[in-house]
Amino acid sequence: MNKDNNLTNSEIEVLDLEETPSTPKKKKKPIIKFENVVKEYHTGEVYTRALNGINFTIYEGDIVIFLGTSGAGKSTALNLLGGLDQATSGRIFVDGDDITKYNENKMLEYRRAKVGYIFQFYNLIQTLTAKDNVELVLELCKKKKKSNAEYLLEQVGLKDRINNYPSQLSGGEQQRVSIARALAKEPRILFADEPTGALDYNTTRQVLELLVKTCKEKNITLIIVTHNNFITPIADVVYSFRSGEIISKVENNNPTPVGELPW
Ligand SMILES: Nc1ncnc2c1ncn2[C@@H]1O[C@H](COP(=O)(O)OP(=O)(O)OP(=O)(O)O)[C@@H](O)[C@H]1O
Ligand SMILES: [Mg+2]
User: Fold this and answer.
1) What is the pLDDT, as a whole number, of residue 24?
2) Mean pLDDT score of the chain, rounded to an integer?
3) Rounded to the nearest 5°, which phi and psi values hold at 187?
4) Is pLDDT at 240 greater than 80 in this prediction?
5) pTM (predicted TM-score)
6) Pick from 64, 57, 8: which is nearest to 34 by CA?
7) Atom 11 (ligand 1) nearest CA
8) Which residues surround ligand 2, an ion (CB under 5 A)?
9) Structural contact between residues 72 and 58, judged by C-beta atoms closer than 8 angstroms
């Protein structure tokens, strides 16, 4: 990927169903596959086709960015993957299972066990301290093993803040609590919808560094939704969305470390 984000022809690939792994040298395992996924919304008289039959494959351990302008369908794709919404048609495979076929219980289990979610505005429970926000997830997932809330908060640099309530934390600190909370599950896939949208540059850099480092260490597949071109060099693969379609896929065999972006 070149620095000024102008894509050369060799970097733009026309999408079809027969995709090749992102890094052919090292054979990667497909973890997510969208097949002709359509999502329509009907709100009163208004009909919106938020996803117009999209196809893509994501490989285990990759850092993937969904890029695109407002209303392009990025969050819709992420919400379908996270089991927060249902596709109108098409199939969505995760680890070979079609999650569009899941009943309520299986979907609940999938959301609890396999996926972590980081939101733009943190979604922390305001009446719980940082530690209790993380502990709640550990209890829900019955994961008492090696991870505990204090350790996870220490990992994200909040050792001295564990007993603070969200209102007593800065934006970046709250986002770091929400990262610790998402990591508490040890998810296979982590979704981050505009995770740095409400943060300044310095904090954006810290949060992205933490996310990338942790996901690479634990082989977590990370999907970041953003409309910020600036961070695309950190990803293994960038999908660009426009009007409910994927208009390009850019693979990057040599992602830039977060700290080396021209901040
Ligand atoms: N719950 C909903 N009901 C009706 N329409 C919706 C709903 N959610 C999304 N849409 C519509 O679907 C389209 C895609 O929305 P989506 O939220 O996926 O966009 P986005 O790419 O995430 O944009 P942004 O960068 O602004 O977050 C938009 O036209 C939006 O208005
Ligand atoms: Mg969105």
Assistant:
1) 52
2) 88
3) -70, 160
4) yes
5) 0.87
6) 57
7) 50
8) 75
9) no
Domain at 9-114+187-254, CATH homologous superfamily: P-loop containing nucleotide triphosphate hydrolases (3.40.50.300)
Question: Phi first, then psi: what are they for 217, rounded to 5°?
Answer: -60, -40
User: Residue type at 198?
Assistant: A
| More confident of the two residues 70 and 2 | 70
Domain ranges of the chain: 9-114+187-254
Residue from 41, 86, 88 whose mutation best tests the ligand 1 pocket (most atoms within 8 A of CB) = 41
Identity of residue 94: V
Does the pLDDT of residue 227 top 80, yes or no?
A: yes
C-alpha of 85 from chain center: 15
Summarize the confidence of residues 246-253 as an average pLDDT: 97
**Reported confidence tier of residue 144, pLDDT bands at 50, 70, 90:** low
